[in-house]
Structure formats: C-alpha cells, structure tokens
Amino acid sequence: MSTYLGMPSRRVQEPSSPIQGVRDFPAAARQALGDSVLRRNLGHATSVIRGKRAAVVGEVPDWEALRDSAEAIKTETMARLPELLEQLEANVTAAGGTVHWARDADEANRIVTELVRATGETEVVKVKSMATQEIGLNEHLEDEGITAYETDLAELIVQLAEDQPSHILVPAIHLSRTEIREVFATRMPGVDPLLTSEPRALAMAARTYLRELFLRAKVGVSGANFAVAETGTLTVVESEGNGRMCLTLPETLITVMGIEKVLPRWRDLEVFLQLLPRSSTGERMNPYTTFWTGTTGHTEGTTGPDGPKEFHLVLLDNGRTDVLADEVGRAALHCIRCSACLNVCPVYERTGGHSYGSVYPGPIGAILSPQLTGLTGDSVNDSLPYASSLCGACYDVCPVKIDIPSILVDLRARHVEAQQSRTGLRVPSPEAVAMAAAAYVMRDEKRFAAATRSMRWGRPFMKDGHLRGPLSSVMTGWSSSRDVPTLPDQTFREWWAERESGGHGG
Amino acid sequence: MRIALFVTCLADSLFPEAARATVTVLERLGHEVVFPTAQTCCGQMHTNTGYQGHALGLVEHHVTTFERALDEGAEAVVAPSGSCVGSVRHQHAMVARRAGDEALAQRAERVAEQTFELSELLVDRLGVTDVGASFPHRVTYHPTCHSLRMLRVGDKPLQLLREVRGIDLVELPAADECCGFGGTFAMKNADTSTAMLSDKVTHVRETRAAVLTAGDASCLMHMGGGLRHQRTGVRTMHLAEILASTDGAGAVS
Ligand code: SF4
C-alpha cells in the first residue's frame, strides 16, 4: 500500500532499457495488482476514456470503411518504406531541413546531443514523444549536461515525480489528483505552496511554470505523428497547445521519428486525422494540429517568422527493420499510438503500464516491445506475448485494424521456437514436456479415451473440491482462487457408446 | 439435416452434460446427430501457448476426422463452444500455412466453412430461435470473448434464450468483458486472471441470478470455479443445457 508521505512514486523497477524491464510480466503484475490505489485510479480513468471513445466512434457512419482505408494505407506504406523514406528525405531537404538516419537508440541520442551542442544551448523544451522515450533521450541528454523539459502536462508530472510513464497518451494515468498536487507542491520550482488539487489550479500552476520555459528556450525537441513523403510535411497532433509552443517558438527544432510514421500522400491524412483523435482522447477533433515543412514557416511568413530557423529530422530504426522483415509481426508497425487498445484491455486496466516494463505498455506493447528487442527464448520481454487472455477487445477498437491477438499467438510460437533452439538437445522446460505429452495423447483417439477415463482415477487426489497430491502443485495458481470442477461419472464418448449399443434410451 | 458433433475435449471429459444437451436439442428439432469417434482435440491450447509444432498434428487429426464425416453425408459440424469453433475457423489454416502445408490449410478451410458454434447453427443454418425449451429460473448470460469477437455470434444466444418458457433473463453488467480464463493464461498469469475473475463474479452477483450461462464450457469452468470458491450459490450451466431443459414444462419433451 502506498501512502502519501513523501513522493508518490510507484516506480516498480529500474528499467534495463526503456523498452525492456528487469522482471517478467507475471512478477511485475503481481505487485501492481496488490496496489489498491493504482487499481482504483486506472479502473476509473480507463472506463471514462472508453466511454468517450465509444460515443464519438459511434457517431461516424463510415468508421469501418475508415479503418479499412487506414489498414490499406499502412500496408502500402510498409511495402514501399525504403522508397517513401527517400522521398521524404528529398522533400524535407528541399524545404530547408536536414535529415539524419539513426540505426539504434545510441546513434539517435548521439545525433541529437551533437545538434543541441552545436547551438551552444544547455536546455531544450520537449513535445510529448514516444520515440524519444523509446531511446531514453532525456536521460542521455542529462548525462551530457543538457536539461530536457517535458511540456506535455502529464509528461511533466511524470518527469517531476521522477516516475515512469504508464500510458502512451496519459503517462500519469496511474496517479490521482492528490498525488499530482503532491508532485507539484514539492518539485515544481516557484510553485505556490498552498496549491490545491483542483484540476484548474494544477493546470494554472503548470502553465505559469511552462510559459517561462517556452519564452526562454532556443531548442525544441519533438516526435511526429505522421510525415508526408510527397510534401516533406510533418505533423504533431495534441490537445494542450504546449506542443505548438515548442514547435514554433524555438530557433532550432529537432524531430525524432520512427521510420514507420511516414505516409505516402497528403490526402492520407484525411483518414488518420479522423481516426486518431476519436480513438485516443475521444474527441471529434483534437484542439491543436501542427504541420511544418522544413523551415518554410520561418522564411515564408508575411507577418514575420513563424517556426524554426533550423530543422533536423532524425529517422529512427531501432529494431524496426527487423520487425518489418516478419510477415505476421510487421503489422505492429502500423500503430498510430492512439492507446485505444490500452484503455479497453482488461489486463492493462488491472496491472497498469509499469508491469510491461517498456514505454510501450498494454496490447500494443505486448506485440511491439518484444519484437523491437528480439524474442530470445529467455528474455524478460518474451513474457509479454503471454500477458493476454486473447479476448480480442484490442483488435475491435484498433483504428488501423492491427490483429493483435493473432500477432500475440504468433509471437508465442516464436518464443517457443527460440527457446527450443536455445536449449537445443539439453533438457526442455517442464511446460514443453507437458505439451509434448498432451499432444501425443491427443493425436490418437484410443490414447485420448484412455486418458480421459483414467482422469477419474485421479479422484483420490481431490478433496472438498480442491486438488491434493502431485497434481496440486501444477495447478496451485489456478485452484487457489477457483474450485476445480468435479469429474463426471461418464465421459461423453462413453455415454455415446453405451447409447449406440442400446445401453439406455437416449 | 445430418449434423456431426465436434464435442471438444473439455466437454467430452469434464462437461459431458453440455454435449449430451447439444444432442438432445438437435434431435428434438428432428435432426440426426452423428459422433465421429476418432475426434480428440482441436489443438487450441497448443497453438495459443506457442506450441504450433504439436498443434499441427492435432489440426491434421481434426481435419481428417471431420472431412470424413462431411464426405459421409454430414452437412454441418457443430460444437458447444465458441472458442473451439474459433480455433477451427481462425487458426487451423494458419497453423498449417505457418508449417508450410498448403494442402492441409485448404482442407482445414473446407472443414472450417462447415463448422458452427451451437447458436450459429440453430439461428443461422437451421433458422430456429424457439427450440421448445422451458427453464423457469433467473438466468444471466456471459458472452464469451471468442464467440463475441472471433465468431461474431452477436445476440444469437440471447435470441435463443428469450424464447425459453418461463426464463427470467437478466442482463449482466459489463457483460462483454473477459472473465479472465484465456486457457493457459489463467495459469501463467494466475494473479491477473484472478483479478479479472473476481470482477466478473461481482457482476454476476449483482444480477441476483440463480444460473450463469455461456456458450463455452471452458469459461464456465473458470467462472464456476470462482463462484463456488466464494460460495455464491450461483450455478453455471452451458447454453445447450438450458436449451435442452424442459424443466417445469409438463408434457413438453
Ligand atoms: S495498436 Fe491500434 S489501438 Fe493500440 S495504440 Fe496502436 S493504433 Fe491504437
């Protein structure tokens, strides 16, 4: 149980990388499930967003057609990715920007650090971005003596609290208002100590704090929701307007973007700008959508410069090419980070984002994180594809129609294959032995019939509806909260055989 | 119509009453039920746990068994389980293709096309909603995830239940939320599964129903285990059992 004394940080683990934790999912989840404050915060927040989403999605008569279009555009994009990225590079360059290619997190961090250094600045303001979280940019910059200020309200809360984000869209979803007030009151420079936990008071405190940063900062760092190959235009979609401040006020803008965010055509935005806000915040349209094309905003304005003088685009791979190579898994790259799948996921709702050990939590995290880090057969991320009951709620809401359950099933197979090739001829896991034995029995009806008959001989192992003896250790997790079924006197096939031979009336 | 029963390994061994009830309902409607005794298991557990190599043999066995039943004159295959039909329809060809066996994939697709979950068979193929059942008790229905989202059975089970004489059908709050079973998920992630189950049990209790029903013996086993563990007194019954029931109906049989 957490108390409100001191910092309300629920950091459960020191991540070994921003996309891989140190404990497997069942272990991390067990701790989170015991936190009743977390359960209440999450249960409430997710159900509110779920309701809002359902209402605004229900208004759109061609929602399914939009999803189909989005899926088709993303599939086309993945098939033409190299070509589209080159087109994007050419158009960004022509519009006065500079494009950098980063193979992995280290390379991306190095590029951004050098770019900031070249400006002579030691602080940057940041737009909420998953790509920069994925590479751990803030921590890296800090090590290099550069301070990165998060300006998205929820991201700011998490940063001040020195906590980890637990949701793609609402990184502080695991914290209550009371806890947020605590963070501001103790960690925000210059804050009124009499601050209340009233939402408006909290927002105003953040506003005062951020305004000064916006006016001071010379360098902005962002991610991007989409990039249009045919025009070289980038987009950030947001609700607060703080992103717009970072994208327009600083002299230098550095954008870190995963290579999968590119879209072929300007017109494609028509589809995604309808799908994204309704799926993520449950709004018909988000309040702020910023587009920029290189440095043209700076040079073309008739009423003076509007937008950065210098623009750098860092295109990040960090495992994406490997994901793209897998025919089934590559659909995970279609994700537009709306977080609808998190909000409907019964596992996420109960275990929270930190249990996934990655900046990508929930259903999308369960298919993306292990693919980005690679399934090895024994890594922590190998446990993520199993963190699902395969209920399919995620697939139903996904605006780009990623068949998450099928990908989970495929990743499970890849995990087992990796495990088998790792152990080679050495001793297989107890689970692998049990699965092999079950398959052997079930492949043949005589063996199967004999096995089901003999289950009744297992009755002495049961007492008062609970398992006793050797079977119980295998089943403990399950049977500690559920009574096991009682065994019938006759299997169906025995009944059928008896009926066929005229044994009873039927 | 001659209908081949795909009993599912779970109903065969642990819940034969659901399978017997399926036979009762179909025969009462004048159909002939055959039981291909070679059948064992559809391989869903292996597929969903990552052991597709082992699942392949089970898929082959299933396809061969029911292909023969169809060749011998069965016009449809029925199972009292949304989950197992989901596996046949959405996974069998996939498992075969992943193993590079295109011929098996195509044979699997043929069997899958003729395989139906009970409520689908009754409402869509046979065009009935009133199966002549009577069950004068307070009942709530949980739509299992695979029948709801994999098979899209929609309100077919409810259409059938509404026609049952004497039934007091009450809506389950947050009905479409998963009960937390998920096959080996319930063991591998037992704590999370339990948290989901306890919310489901709470909602079932809110309905004050005497009976919880669903189209899947597996989910019923899970929810029933939770209901009994908490000594709620709520019984679980498979949808087929309610449809087969002639409780308090006197001459109806
Ligand atoms: S997987 Fe789909 S639902 Fe989930 S965040 Fe990505 S786009 Fe949204």
The number of strands of chain B is 8
Portion in helices of chain A: 40-55%
Can you identify the CATH class of the largest domain in chain B? Answer: Alpha Beta
Total discrete domains of chain B: 2
Radius of gyration of chain B: 18 Å
Q: What is the CATH fold-level name of the largest domain in chain B?
A: Rossmann fold
Q: Which key phrases capture this entry?
A:
heterodimer; A: 506 residues; alpha/beta; Rossmann fold; six-stranded parallel β-sheet; four-stranded mixed β-sheet; 12 strands; 49% helix; B: 253 residues; four-stranded parallel β-sheet; 8 strands; 53% helix; binds iron/sulfur cluster
Report on the architecture of this protein:
The complex is a heterodimer of chains A (506) and B (253). Chain A is 49% helix and 10% strand. Chain A is an alpha/beta fold. Among the domains of chain A are: 80-151 and 218-318, 3-Layer(aba) Sandwich (Rossmann fold); 446-500, no CATH class. In chain A, the strands form three sheets. A six-stranded parallel sheet of chain A has the order 1-10-7-4-2-3, with helices on both faces. The longest helix of chain A is centred in the N-terminal third of the chain and has 23 residues, at 36-58. Chain B folds into two domains: 2-125, Rossmann fold (3-Layer(aba) Sandwich), CATH 3.40.50; 138-244, Rossmann fold (3-Layer(aba) Sandwich). Chain B is built from 14 helices and eight strands. In chain B, the strands form two sheets. A four-stranded parallel sheet of chain B has the order 2-1-3-4, with helices on both faces. In chain B, helix 13 links the parallel strand 7 (211-214) and strand 8 (235-238). The longest helix of chain B has 20 residues, at 52-71. Chain B starts with a strand and ends in a 9-residue tail after the last helix. At the A-B interface, helix 1, helix 16, helix 18, helix 19 and helix 20 of A face helix 1, helix 2, helix 3, helix 4 and helix 9 of B. The structure holds iron/sulfur cluster (SF4). Iron/sulfur cluster binds next to helix 15 of chain A. Residues 279, 335-341, 364, 397-400, 402 of chain A line the site of iron/sulfur cluster (SF4).
